[in-house]
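In this section we walk through a basic example: taking a raw amino acid sequence and producing a predicted 3D structure, encoded as discrete structure tokens. The instruction is simple. Fold the sequence below.
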Amino acid sequence: MVVQGLAQGPGNMQLRAIVADVADRQRLEAGVDRAGLPLAPN
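The resulting token sequence is shown next.
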């Protein structure tokens, strides 16, 4: 169980970081903060 947790932990953090980067790019391009929808499932 510990090994499985170590294997999944970085993947979950990386996914959240990528989604946050996408939300930042959308905010930069659109000029409107719409980060709630992409960040909600996490």
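Looking at the output, two observations stand out. The chain has a mean pLDDT of 78. The longest helix spans residues 2-30. In the next section we compare this with other chains.
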